[in-house]
What does this fold into?
Amino acid sequence: MPTRSPYSGPYRKLVLAFDVGTTFSGISYRFPAQEQVGGDSKIPTIIYYDQNGVVRAVGAEALKEGLDDMIEDEGWTKAEWFKLHLRPKASASATHKIPPLPRNKTVVDVFADFLHYLHTCAQTYIQETHANGADLWASIEGRIEFVLTHPNGWEGAQQAQMRNAAIQAGLVPNTTAGRARVHFVTEGEASLHFCIQSGLTTEAMKHGRGVLIVDAGGGTIDISGYGQTSESTFQEISPAQCYFQGSIFVTNHARTFLQSMVISHLDIETILTRFSSALLEGSKFSEDVNHITNCFDKTTKLRFRNSSEPQYIKFGSARDKDLSLGIRSGQLRLKGYVSFQVQVPIQVYETIP
It folds into this structure.
């Protein structure tokens, strides 16, 4: 495993790495109001704005119980999946419909608000948990190096927008030196570093084999191939790929399926009577599609293992039944082979000699 020399600079520094994902985000430090999302140091990538465009709730705070009434009564607007609005134009046509940005907000505005929140959380944590935390933060605040991750294939244009968001968020000043403190790494490279430090690539590298990294995220599936050229040097052995077919789109496929004419599990008589209708349209469950989709997202999608077994979406009570729809005891039965699998091609163009 390659080793890294300890930092030997003339003064103390801090590196904060932000991973702003489509559905969840993380940073080096923990977050307030995180109890409801587990202890894995990530929060939902969600922001709520009021009617004046002011941030009212972010991350796990946006999922607190009792917040729904305030959201409805005060007309708050939800921003989610906003990272995908940064995507290259060439990939826009391959992306499913994504939620629009809040009114009068650009993607840089929303991204900046979220970075500001993450930065504030890190600052608060350091100040409250380290000895002399306030003095410690004051001594390093102007020298923090920021690392932002992004999907494979995002290049200068996307990095420029993310850097502008970091400036707008107050992470760095809008100067040459300030901009130089914002660094970028692809999600494939970040995954490779994690694998190396965890020893997951050791055996493969010993025998001169390459390593294929598949990062199946919320918005994108990133595929990267690497080979080791020396003890501490790695090189891509295939062009990195990025597919907009992540977890959120699997759920979208499920929603479409529930609303579509995919009725192959029904008998011929039912097919004839329901041919022009969506799966649940016209039934007493037609208004439950959103709830059923959410149940799929939280449970069924996570349990799927193979296409030879049926899958079930538990959404109701024992009284909910409609055998023509495959619903029994509050469960909707799905054949395994109509589950929402995505096939992506992998091309390796040139290997290291």
